[in-house]
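To the structural biology subgroup,

Please find below the input and predicted structure for MarR family transcriptional regulator, which we are adding to the shared reference set this quarter. The sequence is reproduced verbatim from the submission form. If anyone notices a discrepancy with their own records, reply to this email rather than editing the shared folder directly, so we keep one authoritative version.
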Amino acid sequence: MKIEEEIKQSVFKDVYQKSYINVVYTANWLEQRQSAVFKAYGITLPQYNVLRILRGQFPKPATVNLLIDRMLDKTSNASRIVDKLEAKALVTREQCPSDRRTVDILITQKGLDLLQQMDELGNQGFSGLHNLTQYEAEQLNTLLDKIRS
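Predicted structure (tokenized):
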């Protein structure tokens, strides 16, 4: 559906305003779809993001600062997210043996199993993106990268 129909606005200041609104609206639309899929697993998007970062680091530990640097949502409170994941036994925290001021965060087997289970459901959270061809998805990535450059 066209952005004009989605937000019931037919006139925009210019094509750049329309593009901006379209990108923001679509990002929120994708996030809502992904959140609905994750709800069945009892985790949020930021928690999923942290688990994926930790799986990428595994078996090496991560620090909160590393998580902050790599998180998609820079406004998320990484320490609080780790607290919630630890309460669910999806991660552990231990004092770093080489630097007592640092806390090492590791994904647990339960966390790895949860991600494996979520991987098996495929890309349901990204289903709208599958309306694009591979070439169109590559173009979209190039254009989004260009916006941020």
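Summary notes: Residues 74 and 82 are 15 Å apart (CA to CA). The first strand starts at residue 91 and ends at 95.

Regards,
Lab coordination
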